[in-house]
Amino acid sequence: xxxxxxxxxxxxxxxxxxxxxxxxxxxxxxxxxxxxxxxxxxxxxxxxxxxxxxxxxxxxxxxxxxxxxxxxxxxxxxxxxxxxxxxxxxxxxxxxxxxxxxxxxxxxxxxxxxxxxxxxxxxxxxxxxxxxxxxxxxxxxxxxxxxxxxxxxxxxxxxxxxxxxxxxxxxxxxxxxx
Length: 178
Fold this sequence. Notes:
Layout (H helix, E strand, L loop, with lengths): L1 E2 L2 H13 L4 E7 L4 E7 L7 E7 L4 E8 L2 H15 L6 H31 L11 H17 L8 E4 L6 E4 L3 H4 L1
Antiparallel strand pairs: 1-2, 2-3, 3-4, 4-5, 6-7
Helix pairs in contact: 1-2, 2-3, 3-4
């Protein structure tokens, strides 16, 4: 198992950026096939790409941009907490990240529904007109309709598993709701 400390990662980044070199470096790996890489380019950009690659899924499962020292430390700690179960910060970072994702995505979906209703109803769907219930129904109807067409909608939430009764986190719930 490989895990480079956030401070060491920043030292690697600054060395690569000072040397104007392009590099793709593995900074962490766990036993479940998750590998974290940083990628610098010789283009003179001070941004560094960070991504998590999962070998079992053969896919990049997370990416972010690092722009400064404090951002590097915070991002590395967040990623370690999200993807490495033995990390001290794992449970609190993961819970906060999930709650933020749920809230942000809900806001995005309901804002889109609000704009749609406002447009289709020619501006009569104002905050005072009690369209909030319509927005909720519209999001659910469209998401379920898209699922029936084979298109999944990203809408992170907690759902109760019908068989076990346990509450589970899912990012694409409509396959379970249709």
